[in-house]
Amino acid sequence: MGNILEVAGVEKKYPGVVANRDVSLLVREGSIHAIIGENGAGKSTLMKTLYGLIRPDAGSIKVFGQEVSLKSPQDAIALGIGMVHQHFKLADNATVLENVILGGEPSRFGFVIKYEEARKKLLEIAKTYHLDIDPDESVANLGVGERQRVEIAKVLFRGAKILILDEPTAVLVPQEVTELFENLRDLVDKGLTVLFISHKLDEVLSIADDITIMRQGTTVATKKPAETNKKELAELMVGGELPKPIAGVQNISQKSILAFKDVSFSRHDGREILHNLNLELHGGEILGLAGVEGNGQSELIELIMGLLPATSGSVEVLGLDASTTPTKDIRNAGVAYIPQDRQRDGLLMSAPLWENRILGHQFATPMAKGIWVNKAAAAQDSTRVVEEFDVRTPGVNVLASALSGGNQQKFIVGRELSGKPQLIVAAQPTRGVDVGAQAIIWDHLMKARTAGAGVLLVSADLEELFSLSDRIAVIYSGSIVSILNPLKTTPEDLGLAMTGAKSA
Amino acid sequence: MATESKVHVKSIGKAKILFKSPARITLLIAGLFFILALVESLTGATDISSPGTSGATLRFAIPLLMAGLGGLWAERAGVINIGLEGMMIVGTWTAAWFGYLHGPLMGFVAAAIFGLASGFFHAILTVKIGIDQAVSGLAINLIAAGGARYLSGVFFPPVGGDRTVSPPVDSFPTFTIPVIAPILESIDAQNIFFISNLAGILHGLTKDVSLVTIALLLLVPLTSWILWRSKFGLRMRFSGENPMAAESLGINVYRIRYVAISVSGMLASLGGAYLALVASSVYREGQTAGRGFIGLATVIFGNWKPGGVFAGSILFGFTDALRVRQSESVMSLIMVAGIVALVLSIFYSINRRWKPGLISGSLALVAWWIHQRVDVIPQEFVTVFPNFATLIVLTFLAQRLTPPAMAGMPYRRGSE
C-alpha cells in the first residue's frame, strides 16, 4: 500500500515562536499512525494544518499523491480528511442524527431535510464500523465515550478516508479507551487511515502501526512499535541534556506546610480527576510537580487555594483545612499564588499596576487602611516591585494591558512574593517569558526558599524543574506516581514517569 | 453523584414522553374543560366560555404570539431580542401610517418591511459589532418609542390625527365561517352541561374572524416545520446551541443569525400591525403596552417551542380578555384553579410525591380561602395574573426547560 498522506518541509511561524519547522511525515494507507511529543512540540499545529485550520508558511502536503493547498476545513473534508476534536463539538439539546448530519444534510429542493435517508445512512455507517450509537437519542444523555463515537460517525458521514484524532484518549476512562481502540482497528480494517495524537506511550505502542515523534516543532523520528520501546520513545520526546541544578543553601524545616492525605476529587459530571493523592511539602524546600498537562495539576492547585472542595481526603494548608476555609483566609495565612494563566487569573488587564498590586492583599496593611484602600501605599509598594523585579514600565499608573507578557509575569511574581509568604504555589511561573526574566523569577523563588518558604512549583518545563526543585513529584492520571531526586534522575526517566510508564 | 444525575435525566425523559402523547394532552384539556363547565354551572358565571371571551382571547393573544414567535426565532439562533417591544412599536406606527395612505394591506406589508429592517439593525449591532444583546435591545426600544412619538407629531396632526393618535385606518374585513358557526351558536344556546360550554368557545373562534388572524396563526406550524424539518432550521438551532460546532462544519453562523433576527423583527412588527389594524383601527401612543416583554415571557413559558409559545400567548391573552370583560368570572377562574390544584395534590399524594402534593394542596386551600373571604377581585390582580403564572411555571418547570445553550452569549467567528 502506498502513502495516503505525505508532508514535507512544513513550517509555521508565529510572532516570536516557531510552531512547526521542517516537518515531514509519511502516512501509509490503511494504517494507524501515532504522533507523540511533549506539550508545545507542535503536534496540534501540524494537525490543524492538515485540517485546513492553519495555513503553513512553507512546505508541501500531498494527499493520495496529489499536491494540495488546504484553505479551510471544507477543503480538507472534500479531500476526505476528517477531524475528531479533543473538545467535542456537539449540541446537547439535539439528537445524535441532527448532530451528525449538520452541514451535510441530504435534502429535497435544498431545503427540506430527508431525515429518513440520513437515518438509514447513519445506521449503515454504525453497522459497518461497529459504532454503537442510537440516531434518535438526545446527545445530553450520552457519556463521553458515546459522544466520541458520535464525533467519529460525524466524520465518516462526510465520507472521510483519513481520520485525525486529537488526543482522543485524554477524556476517556480505561474501558472506553479499549472500546475506542477496537473501533479504530475496525476502521483501518475497512481501509481507512487514522492519525492519532497522544503522549501516552503505552497506548501508542499497543495501537499504532507507525509512531512519529515530534520535539520543539519538528519531527525527529518515525519508529515501528516492534522496533522500539518506551525508554527510546521517551528519550526522543524529551531530547538533549539539561543544565545541572543550582546548588543552594538547604534549610528544610520539620514543619509540614502543605499536606494532601488520600485526596480524591470528582467533577460535577462524576469524572474523577484526582485519585487518592498524597503529597507533603515542608518549609524551605522547592517541590517540583511534573506531569503532562491535564493530569490533575489545575485541580490540585485549586484545592490548595480553597477554590474547589476535595471530594474525599484532606488538604491541609498551613494548618488550615483548605476544603472548608475561604480562599481569603488561606491567602491571609501566608499563601502566595502565581496562576498559570496570568491574564485570566492573575491581573485586571484594564486596571493600573498599583490597583493590581492590591489584588489578593486587599485586607492587609499597607494596602488597606480600615475599609479604605490606601492608594499612596499601594503605589509606593508597586514602585518597589517594579524596581526589584526589573518590570519594564513607564510607571505604576499604566494599565496592566500595556505591559508585555514577560513584564506582567514579573509583576505578578513580585506581588505574590511580597509580605513574606510561607507557601508559594507557582504554576508555570516562567511560561512565555524571556531568558532574562526567567533568571530573575528563578532567583527570587530560590531566595524565598532560603528564607524558609515552601514552594510548590508546577511546571511543564523540565529544565526549570531540574534547576530549581529539591524533589520532583510526578503526577499522572490524578495520582502522584513517583517522587524523584533531581540529582539522581535523568530527564529520560522523568519523561517516562510523566507518560505513565510504571518503572524506568 | 453520577448515578443520581443519571436517574434525574431518565425521569425527565419519561415525563417528556408522557407529556408528548397526544391522547394524554387531549385528556388533560378535556378534564380542564369539565372542571370549567362544572364551576360555571355551579356559580352561574358564564363569561369564561362565552363566545365573546374566546373571540377576545384570540384578539389579545395574536400580538403576544407574534412577539413570542419573534423572540423564539432570535433566541433559537442564539441572540436574545429584548427589542421586541420597540419592534412592535415600529409595526403599529408603520401599519397605521401606510394603512392610512394605501389601505390596510399595504399597512401590513410596510410593517413587515420596517420590522425586517429593525431586526436587521439588531443583528448588525449584536452579530457584527458584538454589542451586548440586552443593551442593543434596550436601545431599539428607546429609539422606536422616541421615534414613533416624534414622527406622530410631524405626520398625524396635518391629516386629521393627533400628536399621539393616527387618523382612523380602514379595518380588515372579517367573516363568519358558514354552517359551522350557526350550528355552534345553537348548541351554545341549548345550555347543555359541558357540550354547550365547548360550543360557546368554538363559536367565538369561528365568528367574525379576520383572514389576517388565520394567516398569522399559520405561522405557528410553519415555524415548527422550519425548525425541525428544514435545513435552515437545523442550522439555526445549532447557531443557538453550539455555534462553534456549526462553524467547524462550514456553516456561516453570522449569516444564519442575520436572517433569524431579521425575521424576528418582522414577526414582532406584524404583531404591532395587528394591534393597529385588526384589534383596533388606529395607532395610539403606548398601544403596545409592554406586549413585547410579555411575548418574551411566552418564549420561556413555552420552552422555546412554537406550540408552547402559542399556549403561553393564549393564557396571557385569556387573562387580558377577562380583564376587559367581567371581573366575576375571575372568581370562577380562581375556583377552577383551586379544583385543579386539589386534583393535582391528590394525584401527587397517591404517587407518594409529598412535596409537590403539599404545595398544590396549599394552593387549593388558598383558592378556597379567597373564594370564601373575598367578594370582588381587584382589577390589578387580574392584570398581574399572567406574570404571576409565568413565575409559577418558571419555579416548577425550571429544571425541565431547555433553552438554547448559547442564547445571549456573544459569539465571535473562530472562537473556541
What does this structure look like?
The complex is a heterodimer of chains A (504) and B (416). Chain A has 504 residues and is of the alpha/beta class. Chain A folds into 3 domains: 3-238, P-loop containing nucleotide triphosphate hydrolases (Rossmann fold), CATH 3.40.50; 242-334 and 421-504, Rossmann fold (3-Layer(aba) Sandwich), CATH 3.40.50; 343-419, no CATH class. Helices cover 32% and strands 26% of the residues of chain A. Chain A has 17 helices and 24 strands. In chain A, strands 6-9-10-3-11-12 form a 6-stranded mixed beta sheet, with helices on both faces. Chain A has a 6-stranded mixed beta sheet with strand order 18-21-22-15-23-24, with helices on both faces. A 4-stranded antiparallel beta sheet of chain A has the order 2-1-4-5, with helices on one face. In chain A, strand 19 and strand 20 (372-373) form a beta hairpin. In chain A, helix 8 (230-238) crosses helix 17 and helix 13 (375-388) packs across helix 14. The radius of gyration of chain A is 25 Å and the shape is globular. Chain A starts with a strand and ends in a 6-residue tail after the last helix. The model of chain A is unreliable at 241-245 (pLDDT under 50). In chain B, helix 3 packs across helix 14 (291-301) and helix 4 packs across helix 13 (253-279). In chain B, strands 1-2 form a two-stranded antiparallel ribbon. Chain B starts with a helix and ends in a 19-residue tail after the last helix. Chain B has a domain at 47-325: ABC transporter involved in vitamin B12 uptake, BtuC, CATH 1.10.3470. Chain B has helices spanning 2-20, 22-43, 51-76, 84-102, 104-129, 133-155, 180-190, 195-206, 211-217, 219-229, 231-241, 243-248, 253-279, 291-301, 306-324, 328-350, 354-373, 379-397; strands at residues 174-175, 209-210. Mean pLDDT of chain B is 84; it is low at 1-19. Chain B is mainly α and 416 residues long. Chain B is globular and about 60 Å long. At the A-B interface, helix 2, helix 3 and strand 8 of A face helix 1, helix 11 and helix 12 of B.
